[in-house]
Amino acid sequence: MKSFAMSLKSLLLLLALAFTAHAADKVDINTASAEEMDRVLVNIGPSKASAIVKYRQENGPFKSVEELALVNGIGMKTVERNRDLMEVGARMAPAKPAKGTELKSVGRR
Q1: CB atoms closer than 10 angstroms to residue 67
Q2: What is the rounded distance in angstroms from the CA atom of residue 101 to the CA atom of residue 109?
Q3: Distance between alpha carbon 1 and the CA centroid of its chain, in Å?
Q4: Helix, strand, or coil (residue 27)
Q5: How far apart are CA 31 and CA 98, in angstroms?
Q6: How confident is the model at residue 5 (pLDDT cuts 50, 70, 90)?
Q7: What is the number of alpha carbons within 13 Å of residue 51 lying toward its C-beta?
Q8: Which domain holds residue 47?
Q9: Which N-terminal residues, if any, form the signal peptide (predicted)?
Q10: What integer best gives the mean pLDDT of the chain?
């Protein structure tokens, strides 16, 4: 009887750890590769994950999770389904000077 109880406890612990590890998987949509997004996100396969990366490269980092709905093939339903699996990192796009205000190098004195 003791071995059965010990086996049951071990099984429960293993299941708890497995679900915890899976639940901890989050993907930063500003830094993740297409492979990472394909692995973690629900209903996001290789082609949609590649579309996300392409959009990010062309338009800069995402400011919010909702912005994913602007990617071709991804709607708000998919965004809502994956909300708890995604995060938007603090990485910001490099600042670009306003048109006509480019910095010019100054010679040394």
Answers
A1: 16
A2: 23
A3: 47
A4: strand
A5: 26
A6: confident
A7: 13
A8: 22-87
A9: 1-23
A10: 81
**Contact, 44 vs 77, CB < 8 A?**
no
Q: For residues 1 and 21, what is the distance between their CA atoms, to the nearest angstrom?
A: 30
Going by C-beta distance under 8 Å and a sequence separation of 6 or more, which residues neighbour residue 86? 26, 27, 28, 29, 41, 65, 68
Cβ neighbours of residue 90 closer than 8 Å, sequence gap 6 or more: none
- Domain assignment present for residue 102? The answer is no
d(CA 54, CA 71): 9
Beta-carbon contacts of 65 under 8 Å, excluding residues fewer than 6 positions away, are 29, 79, 83, 86, 87, 88
CATH number (domain holding residue 42): 1.10.150.280
pLDDT tier at 105 (50, 70, 90 boundaries)?
low
Residues 6+ apart with CB under 8 A from 81: 42, 43
Asked if the model's pLDDT at residue 85 lies above 50, the reply is yes
